[in-house]
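Hi Q.,

Before the meeting this afternoon, I wanted you to have the flavin-adenine dinucleotide prediction in hand. No need to reply - just skim if you have a minute. The sequence and ligand are here:
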Amino acid sequence: MNDTDVLVVGAGPTGLTLTASLLNQGIQAAIVDKLPAGANTSRAAVANARSLEVLENLDVSWRMVKAGLVAPRFSMRQGDRTLIPIDFSTLPTNYPYSLMISQADTERLLEERLNELGGEVLRPKTLSRIAQDSTGVTAIFDDGETLRASYVVGADGTHSTVRHQAGIGFAGGEFAESFALADVRVAGEAPRDEVILFYGNDGLTVLAPLPDGVFRIVAPHPDAPQSPTAEFVQDLLDTRAFGPGRTEVTDLLWGSRFKIHHRVADTFRAGRILLAGDAAHVHSPAGGQGMNLGITDAIELATALATTLHGAPDTALDAYSASQRARAQQVLTLTGRLTRVSTLPRPLRPIRNSAMRLAAHVPAVRRQLAWRLSGLVYR
Ligand SMILES: Cc1cc2nc3c(=O)[nH]c(=O)nc-3n(C[C@H](O)[C@H](O)[C@H](O)COP(=O)(O)OP(=O)(O)OC[C@H]3O[C@@H](n4cnc5c(N)ncnc54)[C@H](O)[C@@H]3O)c2cc1C
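Predicted structure with the ligand bound:
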């Protein structure tokens, strides 16, 4: 007898969605996380239309919409000039917008729903090793405890122990440039209903609204400091956004620097061990796809596991691995392109911007971008 049907390792957005969805379908599931409490740092800032659609069955979408900020507009600009406007309003969905919400809030709402469904995150509890045989998987934790499950899912992020233990490769690489990231309050020009990617000749800057009057700034920079200062962010806005003095940083809440990896696991399934979320794929945050892809992995995997555990052949698990891996590769292609376009050498940037303005005249280009960024293309 196994202790549980499914052990989920990692209580980020992927693991929480997966566990809640399993419980919602009557499957026994346990979830562990090595952290004593949920992380409170600023990470993903956007929930897209597809995530909100798939979270409807879990009764979580309306809670997120209530806690977040609706941004119906998304544009690529150079200063005041719009290069490519992206219109979500015509998309056939109940959520024709980007929902701006901090990852900490998304996790809090998912955990709240998990608790309502009778689940609880066991923490702090760190997985050290796993061993599988024909009837299940034995998980061994750093406190010496063991747990036996029919299936184990690694939703344990980029440095996944589950992936390492299963011997699954994680091929890919790293973009050369560093990115600066900051959450700030500003005065002056900064729309609250629009996510803007400024393609300035000095480089890219993202200016995205968050709830409570906060804005997220993201920018590739060859000398991005470990902790960007208010002056550094002000310079980014002056040189790359609307123009000098037009948007003033009044408060720096948080800042960091990061490098971007692009990797996909060789497979999302090795027998009774499965991968989902960042454990299975990492890529550029351009277009805000990372957490959203993890949430759709979780929903698809919950259905595949429920089907299998209800007695069907386990081919649904292979289908999960093949289809979500293919999606991850498509997302890597899209976000890789957006990143490369934004980090082109300076002499090529005016040519790039002219090409973007021309491309904007083709309705199919704008439509494709809207479908991909909203995640609806993966329905
Ligand atoms: C600075 C920053 C900015 C980002 N911006 C965006 C953005 O704008 N848009 C976007 O979509 N994405 C963004 N991301 C990425 C996004 O945060 C991730 O895609 C998302 O967190 C993935 O969720 P996950 O649940 O798969 O993994 P994670 O959130 O990494 O969760 C994994 C969990 O597993 C736990 N864990 C790890 N190892 C073990 C173990 N051995 N035992 C037990 N528990 C373990 C960890 O404690 C963690 O809680 C950003 C990330 C960072 C760091």
